[in-house]
Amino acid sequence: MLIDFHTHIFPDAIAPRTIQALVGGIVKEQGEAYLEGKTLHFTDATLQGLLTSMEEQGVNRSVCLPIVTKPSQTESINRFARGIRNEKTLSFGSLHPMQEDWEQVLESLAERGFRGIKLHPQFQFCDIDAPESLRIIRKAEQLGLLVMFHAGVDIGLPPPVYATPEKIRHVLEYTEGSHLIAAHLGGWQMWDDVERFLVGTPVYLDTAFIKDHMAPEQAKRIIENHGAEKILFGSDSPWERPADTLTFLQSLGLTAEQMDRITHKNALQLLEGADS
After folding, report:
1. Is the separation of the CB atoms in 126 and 97 below 8 Å?
2. Are 179 and 143 in contact (CB under 8 A)?
3. Are 86 and 47 in contact (CB under 8 A)?
4. Neighbour-count burial for 1-36, b at 16+ CB within 10 Å, e otherwise
5. pLDDT value at position 35?
6. pTM, whole model, 2 decimals?
């Protein structure tokens, strides 16, 4: 069984221009040379594109992660997220740390059966350990909501980095932390600091968008030292193919039990009770 805990889709009407804008950000930050010999996205970032990819690549279930980049988007994004629930896909909700009605939004998401929320400090221009983020994280903990967030550098956005491993560790001074999921194995392109500040903490890490960007031996070391019971399979679709992510993990020489934990057992435990 394979559960992809980190995917992105958009409404059909805006998916093409959203992907175009995101690709433009990558080119701006990485340069035109980065495009050479690369496929930057592997689906059209629609629900049907995701479902087709899942069928082709043996993914049983996907978790979609919307991002509210300004408070005015919150209602429409969460309405879309609620509408895509089926036996194969579910979506977290989202909100902006700076919106005034943050508490009511969280309570509403919990009441409507959402299992968690997605924050993206880079797009939301808010440190993960800022008071505005901390109040959301603590309220989510009270409501039993998971909090998934982008961690580390973003390939398509400039500095500063709003969710470094050190800042994530600071968050743990205010919350127990087992409801937190730091994407990109705890901090994209900041994995030395992941080993310094996050390995061994209660925070979950996912495997999204790491396969071509970090040394396999470091990936294995982080997984084993942190504990496979706190690692979630994530591809970052449409930016990476789940089959390629799985191949990378299989190449690390992990045990069958570790792979089972990463590919589906941990996800099933976290998603238990979701209204989907």
Report:
1. yes
2. no
3. no
4. ebbbbbbbbbeeeebeeebeebeebbeeeeeeeeee
5. 87
6. 0.97
Q: What is the Cα–Cα distance from 99 to 71, expressed in whole angstroms?
A: 5
**Cβ neighbours of residue 250 closer than 8 Å, sequence gap 6 or more:** 259
Question: CB atoms < 10 A from the CB of 51, how many?
Answer: 18
pLDDT tens digits for 138-168? 999 999 999 999 999 999 999 999 999 999 9
- pLDDT surpasses 70 at 121: yes
Which two tokens mark 67? 């991002």
Q: Is the Cα torsion angle 183, 188, 193, 199 positive or negative in sign?
A: positive
Q: Do the beta carbons of residue 180 and residue 147 sit within 8 Å?
A: yes
The per-residue pLDDT for range 260-273, each reduced to its tens digit, is 999 999 999 999 85
d(CA 124, CA 105): 17
pLDDT grade, residue 275 (50/70/90)? Answer: very low
Which two three-digit tokens encode residue 184?
Answer: 């990109």
E-state strands within the chain:
3-7, 61-64, 89-91, 93-94, 116-119, 146-149, 180-182, 204-206, 231-232
pLDDT of residue 272: 84
Write out pLDDT tens, residues 231-266: 999 999 999 999 999 999 999 999 999 999 999 999
Residue 118, strand partner residues:
94, 148
